[in-house]
């Protein structure tokens, strides 16, 4: 079976999922991406794309974003033709960093299976809609409307929609009016516990440097718990404004902060293994790969009771708390009891075999076969 894997994703959780699935798919697999993506394979088909808005002064951005958007739509049309020319049996579609659902045009009649990590928050979440800049809302209205329509067209063209959690499945139904199939994510084989228990050296928070990831709540929780350990924040890419905000907060709280950007999997594994706990206090996170990767590495987790995060906690390997610094601080206080933390570590170590990319990829492959009418060979 010829499988075209399509995405436009930078480093981050969604791309990690694509990598895990792509490497586990059976058959003849070809990756197709736009130039703004980070390819997984060395022989990916890369369609040129230039986006200029981020490099111009703020006052000029509205003038540039419209031609950028047109260039993006044309690039997706070019990519669609490239996919069609390859004559796949099925297209495994993944998100676009700019639009959410890629607006694929005709791909030679091949069915499309779309893995939707989350709907476009800017269109379907009240908090995201209300956070839009009131000054630019009018100049960008036509742009946002075109993006919204492109996203909905992309979903409508899919023969089947997959997603990462029961929570996200519900949001997809409310946003687009379509049902989706839950395929949980896996963990790279690298993420395993250390042979011997290690002395904790930090509290860990992993995620993009944006306010909704909750790194500030982690700092406040560590301060509130009186835990004499530094906080390490790991992000896939740099965002100087948010880093500056977090450093100022850490200084006020008297908490030592280290920010690491673009670490390797080997480095992330070491950070998981040596963490007192990994904390994931994001706003309505669709799933939370970091949580299952931490547990597979033998690290207890503290996650917010929002989004799909509660679905990631295995047995007693973690604590699900209200998304407040006070509640997270209480969880850290409880974990300072050696017996409580040892119990969480044992449960985390036992989670390793439950979350594999092989099992996740096998489920994706079954859906791909199903929409093409192909039975398992």
UniProtKB/TrEMBL annotation:
Residues 46-187 form the Glycosyltransferase subfamily 4-like N-terminal domain. CDD domains: GT4_PimA-like. It holds the Pfam family Glycos_transf_1. Residues 203-334 form the Glycosyl transferase family domain. GO terms for molecular function: glycosyltransferase activity. InterPro entries: Glyco_trans_1 (IPR001296), Glyco_trans_4-like_N (IPR028098). Keywords: Glycosyltransferase, Transferase. This is Glycosyltransferase involved in cell wall biosynthesis.
């Amino acid at each position: 079976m010829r499988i075209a894997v399509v995405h436009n994703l930078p480093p981050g959780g969604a791309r990690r999922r694509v990598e895990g699935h792509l490497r586990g798919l059976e058959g003849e697999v070809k990756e197709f991406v736009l130039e703004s993506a980070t390819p997984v394979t060395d022989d990916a088909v890369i369609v040129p794309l230039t986006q200029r808005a981020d490099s111009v002064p703020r006052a000029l951005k509205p003038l540039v974003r419209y031609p950028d958007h047109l260039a993006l739509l044309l690039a997706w049309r070019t990519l669609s033709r490239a996919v069609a020319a390859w004559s796949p049996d099925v297209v495994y579609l993944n998100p676009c960093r700019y639009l959410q659902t890629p607006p694929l045009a005709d791909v030679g009649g091949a069915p499309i299976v779309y893995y939707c990590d989350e709907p476009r928050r800017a269109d379907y979440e009240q908090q995201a809609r209300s956070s839009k800049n009131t000054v630019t809302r009018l100049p960008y209205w036509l742009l946002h409307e075109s993006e919204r329509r492109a996203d909905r067209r992309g979903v409508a063209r899919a023969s089947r929609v997959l997603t990462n959690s029961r929570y996200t499945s519900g949001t997809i139904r409310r946003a687009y009016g379509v049902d989706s199939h839950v395929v949980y994510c896996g963990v790279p084989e690298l993420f395993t516990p250390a042979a011997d228990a290690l002395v904790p050296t930090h509290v860990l928070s992993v995620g993009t440097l944006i306010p909704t990831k909750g790194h500030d709540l982690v700092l406040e929780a560590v301060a509130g718990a009186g835990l004499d350990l530094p906080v390490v924040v790991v992000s896939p890419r740099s965002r100087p404004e948010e880093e500056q905000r977090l450093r100022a907060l850490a200084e006020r709280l008297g908490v030592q902060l280290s920010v690491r950007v673009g670490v390797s999997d080997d480095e992330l594994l070491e950070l998981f293994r040596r963490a007192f706990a990994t904390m994931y206090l994001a706003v309505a996170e669709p799933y939370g790969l970091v949580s299952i990767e931490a547990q597979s590495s033998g690290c207890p987790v503290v996650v917010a009771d929002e989004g799909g995060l509660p679905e990631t906690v295995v047995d007693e390997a973690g604590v699900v708390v209200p998304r407040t610094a006070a509640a997270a601080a209480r969880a850290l206080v409880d974990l300072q009891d050696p017996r409580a933390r040892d119990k969480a570590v044992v449960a985390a170590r036992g989670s390793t075999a439950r979350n594999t990319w092989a099992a996740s990829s096998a489920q994706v492959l079954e859906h791909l076969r199903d929409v093409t009418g192909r039975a398992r060979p």
